[in-house]
Amino acid sequence: MTKARGGFLIRFDEEQRALLLQEAIDIRSGFSDALSTADWSLGQWEVSGLMFAPDTITHWALARRNRRVATAKSRVEFIQVAPTEIKLQLLEGLIEPRLQRFVVRARAGAGGRVPPATWSQLKEALKTINPVSYEVLDRLERQRDASESTVDLPAAHIVAQERDATGIVLDIFDASHQLRKDVLTGWTPPIARRIRSFLDGLEGVRTIEDHHIAHDARIFPEATGQRVTAIGTVFELGNRSVEVMNVNRTRIETTIGVDLIYYNEQFGAWTMLQYKAMEGHSPGAFRPNTQFTSELERMVHFRRKHRDRWKTKDDIARYRLCGDGFYFKFCWRIQLEILSPGLLPGMYLPRPYLQTLLRSQATGSRGGKLLTEENVSRHISNTLFAALVRDAWIGTRGLSSKKIARLVSLSLNAGRSVVIGRGRPEGRAPDLDETRSLLHL
User: Fold this and answer.
1) pTM
2) Rounded CA gap, 23 and 316, in Å?
3) Half-sphere exposure in the Cβ direction for 315 (13 Å, CA)
C-alpha cells in the first residue's frame, strides 16, 4: 500500500459548482478554478477529495496549483476526476480527530492539508465503507508518487514510445485530442515491476492469450514459431470505435524499438511509422547506422515489390497525397512521463523525402550522414500527422492485409514492439480478435 503523505478535501459552494458545470459540461474531463491555496506547493500534484454536495466527497481527483491569478488565490488544475459518494459522517465515525476542520473552503481558503496520519485513517475507513472508492484513491496516489521521480521501469524508453504511439492513434481517432489527454494522464505504473507494454497501465485493458504465429509459408516464409504476446483495448466515442493492440515477441527489456501500424478501415489505408531517437542535447541529431540502413532498404524493397498503382479512374476514396505508407518519427527526447497529456516532441518524415534528404543536404561537419532539425528544414508535426492519417490523405491503397502482415512479422522477428491501431467506420462494432486475425497473429 502506498505510504500516505496527506491530501486535500475541497468544498465548492453551489455558485462555484454551477459556473464549473457551465464551462465544462462534464467535470470528469478535468477543469480548473481559482482557489485559496496557502498550504500547497506550486506545481506539485496532490490527491484531493472534491465536495460538490454538503458534507459529501463527490469526486476524487489529482490537483496541481499553478500561477497566482488574484490576491491569495492561484489557478488550480484538476485532472483524473473520478466520481464517488462518501459521506463525511461515515468517515468521522472511524477517524480521530474530526475531518471537518481540515476541509478547504475553496473561496474562503479555510482549512488545510489533511495530515498523513489522518489521511491514512481515511483510506483504511474507505476499505470498509467503499472498497471501489479506495482503489481509485490508491491509484491516484501511485500516479502522484510516480510523477515526482524518474520512472524506474525496465525499458522505460520503449514504454515511452508505445505510449506515444497509443496517443497518436487516439488523436487520429479523436480530432479534439481530449481522449488522448484523458488516457495518457490516466496511465498508472503497474504495481508489479514486470510490464509487458504501455497498455498494462491502463484500466480495462484486455489481454489476448498468447498465440503462435501462423506457419503459412506464403505469409511468413521465415516464421520462427515463437509465441506472440498481444494486449489490446477498445476506445469508443458515440458509435465510433478504435482498437489499440500491442504485439511483442520478446521481453520488453530486450526490445530495440517500436513500430506503429494504423489501419483506416473506411478508406482501406495502412500507415506505418517507425520510431528513432535523436542523440545528444535537445533537439539532438540522428546518425544513420547499419540497422537503420537495413530497415530503410526493407521498406524500399517492399514498395518495389508492391507498387502504388493508383489511377485517376480509381475509386475517389483511394486518392492520397502520398500513397507510400512509410514514415519515421525522429524524437528529440524519449522520456516516460507520468500525468503528462503530451506526445513526444519530434519530426515525422515520409520515407521518400527522408531518402532525398540523405542523398543531398543531411550531412555533418565531417561529411557523414547526419539528420538535425536544422538540415531537415521542414517536417510533419504531431497534429498534422494525425490529421493526414485520419482523413486518409496519406497511407497505402490497394494493399492486402496479408502483405501488411508480412511487415508485422518482419518487425517482430527483428525484436521490435508493434503497436496496431484500427479505426472502425461509424456503426462498425469493434473486434480485437478480428483485428488479430487480420494480421495473422
Assistant:
1) 0.86
2) 41
3) 8
